[in-house]
Specification:
Strand order of the largest sheet: 7-6-5-4-3-2-1-8-9-10
Shape: globular
Mean pLDDT: 91
Helix content: 25-40%
Largest sheet: 10 strands, mixed
Order of helices and strands: HEHEHEHEHHEHEHEHEEEHHHH
Distance between the termini: 33 Å
Number of helices: 13
Strand content: 5-15%
Number of strands: 10
Structural class: alpha/beta
Length: 363
């Protein structure tokens, strides 16, 4: 995993001290490759039944010319990590492998997030040979029955396709004697099926994965709020997840059980715990060109088809957001525009807050 070097950290701290203009570019850029998807995962804000944002199968793919131009800007801004993600399924983009190559060409650590269902064929060896650093495969189920309930309209075969895809990439990686991509099997935790998490260890091991990861189910899609864990269920989850972590490490797998439990401890209302510093660190670029601070922030801060990312990064909307979210009260006031419940950046914010809460603003 790539981390900011001392030069980037010094530029960030200098900017934070002096005001709201970032002299360091975004450390990481998440790019929504497409809005098209072949699944309807429970809780998805774009594709689940009654989804809040309702993507169609004809929504934008990220344009290749825009991608090349953005990569050029990211290199100039000093960005070190590119995450290829989607409000849909990234492997549906016909130029995905070219995107991986372009992001690697500018010197970035590249992560691909996928539902894994399209990796059990010729795409697997191509992904294994692409130079991709990390492959994160989302699996919202521990068995066929959970799969049927968590992927609307799917069959038990979907469950096996995801695992077969992970296995195919792992085998192709081994055949090519390549160290990458690191394969991570990811499972969101919801209140309906969290008691079966122990089964994930065997699934990840048998599929040739390197690590197992978890996250709280975020209240971002239709029905997702009702599927987040109640306090008494979080208490029940703790020994389960601790046991899963021990089993994973005994099987030679990485596991983020401690981090996941810390996110549950902080709770859904993250704005009550920490301000948000992520808009100094990351950028999210959607397939239609809209630029957001993160996936949960609905308010666009600009569009790369009308302005350069370099200009957007320090234009007034971004600077205003930095001013607002550097306090807990300011972040709480963003509730109408940002769905921050169980934020995936909260541990980053926690680490930064240990230092930055003592830093006076000079600008």
């Amino acid at each position: 995993m790539v981390r900011p070097d001392w030069k980037w950290r010094a530029r960030f701290l200098s900017s934070f001290l002096s005001g709201d203009r970032a002299s360091a570019g975004p450390f990481a850029a998440a790019i929504d490759v497409t809005r098209r998807c072949n699944l309807a995962c429970v809780g998805c804000p774009s594709h689940a039944a009654g989804a809040e944002w309702q993507a169609s199968q004809h929504d934008d793919d990220f344009a290749w010319d825009d991608f090349v131009r953005i990569c050029r800007e990211l290199r100039e801004l000093g960005t070190r990590k590119v995450v290829l993600i989607g409000e849909g399924e990234p492997t549906l983009h016909p130029l995905l492998l070219d995107m991986i190559a372009e992001a690697k060409r500018i010197g970035c650590f590249v992560t691909l997030l996928t539902n894994g269902t399209r990796l059990d064929g010729p795409l697997a060896p191509a992904v294994a040979a692409s130079g991709l650093d990390e492959l994160r495969i989302s699996l919202w189920a521990s068995d066929e029955q959970e799969c049927i309930h968590n992927y609307a309209g799917s069959s038990p075969r979907t469950f096996h396709r995801v695992l077969d895809g992970a296995r195919a990439v792992s085998q192709a990686r081994a055949a090519g004697h390549r160290p990458t991509p690191r394969i991570v099997l990811h499972r969101p935790i919801d209140r309906v099926y969290f008691r079966g998490l122990d089964r994930m260890v065997g699934l990840a091991r048998d599929a040739g994965c390197d690590a197992l990861s978890f996250s709280p189910m975020r209240p971002m899609g239709a029905g997702a709020v009702e599927r987040t864990l109640a306090p008494e269920e979080v208490a029940e989850l703790r020994p389960i997840l601790e046991r899963v972590g021990r089993s994973a490490r005994a099987a030679g797998l990485g596991c983020n059980d401690a981090d996941t439990l810390e996110r549950f401890r902080i709770g859904r209302n993250v704005w009550a715990a920490f301000p948000c510093y992520v808009n100094w660190l990351d950028v999210r670029i959607r397939s239609n060109g809209d630029v957001h601070a993160c996936a949960a922030c609905r308010r666009p801060l600009g569009n790369i088809r009308r302005s350069s990312l370099t200009d957007i990064w320090n234009d007034e909307p971004y600077r205003r957001l930095r001013r607002t979210t550097r306090t807990r009260a300011g972040l709480a006031g963003m509730a109408r525009d940002c769905n921050c419940g169980y934020c995936c950046h909260v541990l980053t914010n926690a680490r930064l807050h240990r230092v930055l809460r003592f830093v006076p603003r000079l600008g």
